[in-house]
Specification:
Distance between the termini: 49 Å
Low-confidence stretches: 206-221, 488-504
Bound molecules: zinc ion
Largest sheet: 6 strands, mixed
Strand content: 5-15%
Number of domains: 4
Number of helices: 17
Structural class: alpha+beta
Mean pLDDT: 82
Length: 504
Amino acid sequence: MHVDEWSVELQTAWNDFKACVIDYGQALLRRVPPSMKTQVTTLEEIEAVTREITYTLANTLAQAWTRETVQTLEPTTSPSCPNCDRAPRKVGSRSLTKLGIFGTYHWARTYYVCPAGHGGMAPTDAMLALGPERFTATLAEAVSAFAVNLPFDQIPPPVNTLVDLPLDGDTIRRVVERVGCVAEAAEQAAIEAVTAAIAAEGEKPASETSEAEPPSDSGGSLSRSVAPDALIVSADGAMAPFRTGHTYHEVKVAVCQPLQRVSATPSASDALLWQPLQAPDYCLGLEPRPEFWRRVQAHARAVGLDAPTCTLVALLGDGADWIWRYGALYLGGPGREIIEEVDIYHAREHLWDYARGYFATEPAVTAWAEPLNDRLETDGPGPIIAAMTALEAQQPGTNSDEVQKHHHYFVNHADQMDYPRYRALGLPIGSGIVEGTCKTLVKEQLDAGGMWWSRVGAQAIGTLRALYRSGWWNQFWATRPYATAPRRPDANSQARPASTTQVA
Ligand SMILES: [Zn+2]
């Protein structure tokens, strides 16, 4: 409950109470021993002492208030078991400890046990909206905000510059993974809703398709109503270390950027043709590739893929076949053109690797590759393929299979390297944004030194980080994901939604 939502009467009482607090602060200052006042003279020292006093006071108040509330909330009649409706047996008072933003709180509450074996329950726990782990919801949100940017064991020092709490990396990890599991469950619900909506659209005549859109609340955390003119979708994969068998598994990342047309006519000049309609949307998945594309599809729809205005999707990748194979399938649709683009930086890497395989010295490599490198953007892959063919005719026998691989890369992906066209259309030719995302979402965090992930844990934290980066954070926390968090799914069960028959 926010102060703004309180009644006028309650707000008046609150303002009176705050005036008391200010008086109390002045009174406290008069009680500070004079010997202390002579020692504590810099603002830094004053803040340090004040923080100590404030937290002692805050902890006392929060703990006493909680205890008093629990007393008033204790049910006078016996509750019923949520599983079987039978009256549980009262087993007396049991103590509970929570770590909150003002330190540790202890209290005791009445505990009941179901006679049919459904376990124990304390009705006041639910009334206090406690989270499942040792942290309070506010502390869980605070450490989660740190966890989207830092490895778990690096979180306590910055938190402790503000509040001095007994935090450890393992507890933080448990709490954040739990929150991430809630985010991932919402994401799976959104994916299922999109799959259902697509199935419904398929069964209806085209004129009715607009009615088949999922209701806005079925999208879980994914729901934004935008009508872009185009989408840029970039996908990439990176390897992260997994606890199971100490192996590395591929983590896939995609970025969907909705664009708005600012100029109607394509031109050869560098005039701006598009502008971002809103911040890019990120997603991360550990599932197999077809399932990952269902996730991308849900995200692409959340930023307007299926809006009637969206007639163009530029699909950027490093040339890995899976991106092309599934991308067009999941992002295509009537009246929507898919333009597949090999990221130009990857193409250039293949050019230079080819040259290094062919020429012995760096000056020779540069002399051959640099002019071609410069022409790739303006003339496409044609001059490079021609130069490679000519070189191999002049100096046969010096080219290995390894070198040939790079030649084939250009031949096989020539249609996806039409950079002059992409530039004329005003589209990006590099997937820098997804490369950078892969690096920060996967490499720096999932692959942080010595960290081995469970599958569930890696997906949970990955989803949470993607959600934060996409600007969904406040919306997500408004759903109170910690206080209502279900039990953490068993890491071995790996429950996944039933896959569709869309891809064989
Ligand atoms: Zn029961």
